[in-house]
Design brief:
The protein is 25% helix and 18% strand. The protein is of the alpha/beta class. The chain has a domain of 240 residues: 2-Layer Sandwich (Endonuclease, Chain A). The strands form 4 sheets. Strands 1-8-6-4-9-10-11-2-3 form a 9-stranded mixed beta sheet. Strands 12, 13, 16, 17, 18, 19, 20, 21 and 22 form a 9-stranded mixed beta sheet that branches. Helix 2 crosses helix 17. About 20% of the residues have low confidence.
């Protein structure tokens, strides 16, 4: 049986491979005491560095967990000198992250969610980066969202959650106490159950949950991240956050969320016919029917189909599912054309979008930018996922040609260590490369890696890496044009899928993960939260941007994407190294050793 609808069993074998393995890497770090107070009294918001505070008791339990979503756990590096240099230059200071009041289930202000007929991207508010939230203008505040905004709504009558990891102590603290219909779709072994000593109100909520448990094979993930909310006024709303449901993941790396408009219940047959022709609806239904739990899928699909999806016309709901999860619907219910998913479906949708564009000048340079939190290292038929499969499929070319340029926005080791939360922000970024091996060697040679322009980042967040995944394409006359264009891009995909074979598959192999995303056709304008929020505040500007202090009006939200990184990007320098968890582990261990040596010296002096 591929899954079940019941209370999840604590599967030790599966849990060890998916949760404990990564939690052990970080369990010595006290998430409640690390981080950095970035609200400086002098508006300079200068970061003060001090020694890393690490847990002394190695027998203490886990806090939050860190996701494994790269293709391989192999790889080696010899960067001892770099590690020691970074440890000496950049270690996080100790300031406390605000403790959540788990019993605080009162109504929250839902002032960050869009007007009823709009949809757009939101930045997930962080208790580390956004300590000055109350001093911001209403326009600036409108770009934020929290899990409380999504779940602690008295109008919310039912919710369905799809994710890879759940920390139930954190998640249930975000819910309205009266919510009585909660469904959680989860991978076996990837849930941290509610603590026995949690408040009674949370145990009441926990007892109402229906768990849809998916038994995934090794090295595959139920990596989708989606929330389907149904309200007492018969409307529904879709949220696609970049985060799993753990507090550390929401706090330390940057996270965003796509919010749909409110989708009203169908009122007449003509509206129903129009809604049923919307690609987004049909693709969403097709995805849900990939789950093997027949009762769950049919009930959810019937509920979804009672709503008008006309406001999402033109958008595509793209997804990946493993081949073993076949459609469970009848022929009469079948939506879509086949069992395709992943890269093949992505390329097909892109080709349909680009048919509408006028013929481009052949001399123009084509750019594909991917911002990702993990990079797979599998080589299939001597080809890497990005340059050997994805770009040829999307561009409809046989090979990676001279006028086609790929760029991967991926955090450097120094960016992670210099971010306000330092090492804490890097635990979700996986690229197990070897300096002398493929695919890293050829990717470095082709100058594929780009990073955030240091002078374009905000003082509050600096170059904190983002756990989001954006894929976009544009054309220009300059082959060296690595920054996001000022005018528009041809299309943009926001997704849970990292740059890996597991997430996408190829034209020859199937994806092995569950993934979901939103493909937005162009021409579409790209904005940055750096400009809209942080550089709109007097005294916090770094560099210049034409979007500084911009306001996104209601009539452009459907043709705009907002990203958490600055639009100005630069190539890696010669000393830049992509970050990865293994290297950060060694830096952490070096920091612990240096701290222990410092403590020993102090002890001997007493």
């Amino acid at each position: 049986m591929a899954g079940s609808i019941e209370k999840p069993v604590r599967n030790e074998a599966s849990g060890a491979s998916a949760r404990n393995k990564v939690a052990d890497r970080w369990k010595n770090i006290d998430y409640k005491k690390l981080g950095e107070d970035i609200a400086g009294a002098d508006n300079g918001i200068k970061a003060e560095r001090s020694s890393t505070k690490l847990k002394k008791d190695k027998n203490q339990g886990e806090d939050d967990v860190v996701v494994i979503d790269s293709d391989s756990e192999t790889g080696s590096q010899s960067d001892t000198d770099t590690e020691v240099l970074i440890v000496k230059e950049s270690v996080p200071s100790s300031s406390s992250v605000r403790d959540r009041k788990l019993h605080d289930t009162g109504k929250v202000k839902v002032d960050s969610i869009l007007y009823e007929s709009d949809y757009c991207f939101k930045l997930i508010k962080s208790t580390v980066f956004d300590t000055n939230y109350e001093t911001l203008s209403n326009d600036q505040k409108s770009h934020f969202i929290t899990m409380d905004d999504i779940f602690n709504d008295p109008m919310l009558s039912s919710t369905v959650l799809f994710s890879y990891q759940y920390n139930m102590d954190y998640l249930l603290s975000c819910f309205h106490p009266n919510l009585d219909d909660i469904t959680i779709v989860m991978q076996t072994g990837c849930i941290l159950p509610l603590s026995k000593d949690a408040p009674d109100a949370l145990h009441l909520l926990n007892n109402r949950i229906k768990f849809v448990e998916i038994d995934m094979p090794p090295y595959s993930s139920h990596h989708s991240k989606m929330i389907l909310n149904f309200y007492s006024d018969k409307s529904m709303r879709i949220f696609i956050p970049s985060n799993n449901f753990t507090e550390a993941e929401i706090t330390y790396p940057q996270q965003v969320c796509w919010c749909s408009p409110k989708l009203r219940t169908l009122t007449d047959e003509n509206i129903a016919k129009k809604s049923n022709r919307i690609s987004f609806l049909n693709e969403l239904v097709e995805y849900i029917f990939r789950y093997p739990q027949d009762h769950f899928t049919k009930r959810l699909v019937n509920n979804i189909k009672n709503h008008d999806f006309s406001l999402l016309g033109g958008l595509h709901f793209l997804f990946s599912t493993p081949k073993r999860f076949r459609r469970m619907c009848t022929i009469e219910d079948k939506q879509g054309d086949d069992e395709q998913s992943g890269l093949i479906k992505f390329a097909s949708a892109v080709h349909d979008i680009e048919k509408k564009f006028t013929e481009k000048n052949r001399n123009e340079q084509i750019h594909y930018l991917v911002q990702t939190s993990s990079i797979g290292t599998k080589i299939l038929q001597r080809k890497h996922m990005f340059t050997g499969y994805m770009i040829p499929e999307l561009s409809n070319t046989v090979t990676y040609s001279n006028n086609i340029h790929g760029h991967i926005l991926y955090p450097t080791l120094q960016e992670v260590c210099n971010s306000p939360a330092s090492l804490l922000s890097g635990g979700w970024f996986h690229f197990n490369y070897d300096e002398s091996s493929e695919p890293y060697k050829s990717m470095k040679q082709k100058k594929i890696f780009v990073k955030q322009d240091p002078i374009a980042t905000s003082l509050q967040r600096r170059a904190t890496p983002s756990h989001s995944k954006f894929y976009m394409k544009w054309t220009s006359k300059d082959e060296n044009d690595v920054s996001v264009p000022k005018d528009s891009v041809d299309w943009c995909l926001y997704t849970s899928g990292n740059l890996s074979n597991a997430a996408w598959g190829t034209n020859r192999t199937n994806a092995t993960n569950f993934e979901v995303g939103i493909l937005i056709p162009g021409p579409i304008k790209i904005f940055s939260f750096v400009d809209l929020i942080y550089k709109a505040t007097e005294g916090t500007r770094l560099g210049n941007s034409e979007d500084q202090g911009s306001q996104i009006t209601r009539d452009v939200t459907k043709s705009a994407v907002i990203v958490p990184f600055p639009k100005s990007l630069v190539l890696y320098s010669g000393n830049d190294k992509p970050t990865n968890v293994k290297l950060l582990d060694r830096i952490r261990d070096t920091a612990l050793r240096l701290q222990q040596e410092e403590d020993a010296v102090r002890g001997s002096g007493n």
